[in-house]
Amino acid sequence: MTVSIQPEFSVVITCYNKSSTVAGAIKSVQAQNSNCEIIVVDDCSTDTSREVLAQFSDINVILHDVNKGALQAYLTGMRVAQGRFIVMLDGDDALADGILEELSNAEILDDTTSIRMGIAQRKDATNRTGAPSGVRVNITFRPGWLFAATQSTGGAANIFPNTLFKEVDQALGQNWPDIVVQDHILPGMLAFVSRRVLKLSNVGYLIPDVPLDRSLGQKRHRMDNDRLLSDQALAAATFNPAFSQGWISRVLLQLALVIRIRRLGRKYGVATRNAFGLLLSSRQRNDAVDRISSVIRSSPSF
After folding, report:
1. What is the CATH number of the domain that holds 47?
2. Between 20 and 30 A from 23 (CA), which of 51, 82, 192, 250?
3. Residue pair 15/40 in contact by the 8 Å Cβ criterion
4. 201-216: per-residue pLDDT in tens?
5. pTM for the full model?
6. Does 262 score more than 90 pLDDT?
7. How many Cβ atoms from other residues are within 10 Å of residue 175's Cβ?
8. Domain check: are 31 and 126 in the same one?
9. How many other β-carbons are positioned within 10 Å of the β-carbon of residue 290?
10. Same domain for 117 and 162?
11. Which residues contact 210 (CB under 8 A, 6 or more apart)?
């Protein structure tokens, strides 16, 4: 695979203790018939992930000397990405064969569009079915910020223009929320500056390792906390001149945050004001987020 000075795609793969799967993620990118650079950010793995990465000579490996979490690992890779488009890929996921070429041929890639592809669990990720028969758009969010209000920004391989990422990173002053295990905030923030967001029916594959439900269950409290902080940051972004789309976006993103607050408040036994009161008062919303987050963080399994 030959990479030119300006690749079309920069595939950023995050890795934390993914020694049994990260090679599969890398190979799924190497098998693409597209001009790609591969950036792998190892987030201070304690298993043999770094030994696995050392076997690949044609990738850019960046090593964190302390564990910073999935969001910061992605940000590290994206800030050095040279491609026109950035692809987010977890270290236990694999791209479908030929999907990047299919996206290029479909002529839906442009400098104002973000794309979300799902990730499906397969019992045997090495027995994939070859190139997809075509790109299939399931839902179009236009304007793009509508996607941020759906609360379904994770669990996917997201693709977006590098220029839009730089715009968002600069607007935030590279100061992103204190999120630990999730990266939902990235596609959510990118949606604010995207003219449209396409949610595809096309999917990639989860490479089998530990049972999916067990893996998620061990991180459930952290995932809840991250989603809460993510929704809070998205709601706050609607007041940032770089992101705000007007009062409709503010109301919908605040409503999404209120729904999250009420849901997690019930789950963790934290009393909150009624939904109407929360919607009217940013102080009450922020207070509720702080109290729920404090309870979650005090959990022994956090």
Report:
1. 3.90.550.10
2. 82
3. yes
4. 888 888 876 544 444 4
5. 0.91
6. yes
7. 6
8. yes
9. 11
10. yes
11. none
108 to 28, 115, 247: CA distances (angstroms): 22, 9, 29
What pLDDT, on a 0 to 100 scale, did the predictor assign at position 202?
86
End-to-end distance of the chain based on CA atoms, in angstroms? 41
Tell me what pLDDT residue 154 has.
Answer: 65
Radius of gyration of the chain (CA): 19
Alpha helical stretches, state H, 197-269:
212-217, 220-237, 247-267
State how far the alpha carbon of 211 is from the alpha carbons of 76, 102, 154, 267, in Å: 29, 31, 19, 24
Residue type, 238: T
Token digits for 66? 């302390």
Secondary structure E strands in the chain: 9-15, 36-42, 60-63, 85-90, 93-94, 113-121, 137-141, 156-161, 196-206
Cβ-proximal residues to 302 (8 Å cutoff; 6+ apart), any chain: 221, 222, 225, 296
Identify whether the C-beta of residue 183 lies closer than 8 Å to the C-beta of residue 74: yes
The 3-class SS string of 67-102 reads CCCHHHHHHHHHCCCCCCEEEEEECCEECCCCHHHH
Neighbours of 105 (CB within 10 A): 12
pLDDT score, position 231: 93
| Cα–Cα nearest to 71, from 145, 144, 12 | 12
Structural contact between residues 245 and 222, judged by C-beta atoms closer than 8 angstroms: no
Q: Whole-angstrom Cα distance, residue 182 to residue 89? A: 13
Is 155:189 a contact under the CB 8 Å cutoff? no
Q: Are residues 231 and 166 in the same domain?
A: no
* pLDDT tens per residue across span 77-132: 999 999 999 999 999 999 988 999 999 999 899 999 999 998 876 644 444 545 56
